[in-house]
Amino acid sequence: MTLRALIADDETLARRLLAEYLRPHADIELVAEADNGLDAARAITELGPDLVFLDIQMPRLTGLEVLELTGRRDGVVFTTAYDQHALRAFELHAVDYLLKPFAQERFDAALARARRLQGQPQPGLDRLVAPRPLARVLVPDRDGGSLLVLAVDAIDHIEAQADYVAFHSAGREHLKAQRISELEAQLDPARFVRVHRSFIINLAALQGLERTDSDAYLARMKNGKRIPVSRSGYDRLRAVL
Questions:
Q1: Does residue 6 contact residue 32 with C-beta atoms inside 8 Å?
Q2: What confidence score (pLDDT) does residue 147 get?
Q3: What domain of life does the UniProt record list for this protein's source (predicted)?
Q4: Residue 212: which of 196, 222, 227, 193 has the closest Cα?
Q5: Which residues of 1-40 are buried (b: 16+ CB within 10 A; e: fewer)?
Q6: How buried is residue 203: exposed, middle or buried, by Cβ count under 10 Å (0-12/13-18/19+)?
Q7: What is the CATH number for 53?
Q8: What are φ and ψ of residue 62, in 5° steps?
Q9: Cα(107)–Cα(17) distance, rounded to whole angstroms?
Q10: Which residues have C-beta within 8 Å of that of residue 122, sequence separation ≥ 6?
Q11: Do 217 and 117 belong to one domain?
Q12: Residue 180: which CATH number?
């Protein structure tokens, strides 16, 4: 079976060396290279490679931020020039890494391990990627031909649409295949509140609450939108306001 690989490193020579080390392995197809974290995240999302050779320190997004943004938790081998203190964190979490400079034999050993674990989640990556609130989301552009990084601070509210969520930001809507309950767990609860089973609002975009004739509430947003607020959603709002 052919495995598809992505190399992400901001150094041209490092990418060239990894590609050269892959050459003897006929069952590995190099499908893409990326010289920054944002392009790496896009390639992971669009191409779904089986293996990702990921540098830690890259422009635009770090390797860990790439994993956070894409949710990638398998088939990852880090390439790094980090010091020993940082490497101990990798070893503690059983995450494979290649310490620059490395030889073909060390690369082959990491590749063999990645092959054995191919398709299996690596729990260590979950522990290594700090469980901090989501800061960015990767969403398709309106034309569907590219991906955008959307800062969560720029989101006014989020709406559930079946197995999708719609991010409303600056008058535009961005759809992403994700359940709202999963997204809710990734957001900072002090800044984003689920006010209804189908809606999460950004408190920074909230202007006020309106009581309706039916003894219910609507969240009045600064962009003019009105969002329904359930009883439990109202309680959650009161707890943080």
A1: yes
A2: 76
A3: Bacteria
A4: 227
A5: eebbbbbbbbeeebbebbeebbeebeebebbbbbbbbbbb
A6: middle
A7: 3.40.50.2300
A8: -75, 170
A9: 10
A10: 73, 74, 76, 94, 95
A11: no
A12: 2.40.50.1020
Q: pTM of this prediction?
A: 0.70
Contacts 24+ apart (CB under 8 A), 112-118: 114/51, 114/75, 114/77, 115/3, 117/74, 117/75, 118/3, 118/50, 118/51, 118/74, 118/75
Tokens of 67: 């994993």
Domain termination residue (choose one: 128, 153, 177) = 128
pLDDT score for 221 = 95
In this structure, are residues 157 and 203 in contact, taking their beta carbons and an 8 Å threshold?
Answer: no
Q: Which residue numbers in the chain have pLDDT < 50? A: none
pLDDT in tens, 143-152: 656 778 888 9
User: What total of structural domains would you count in the chain?
Assistant: 2
* pLDDT score at 204: 96
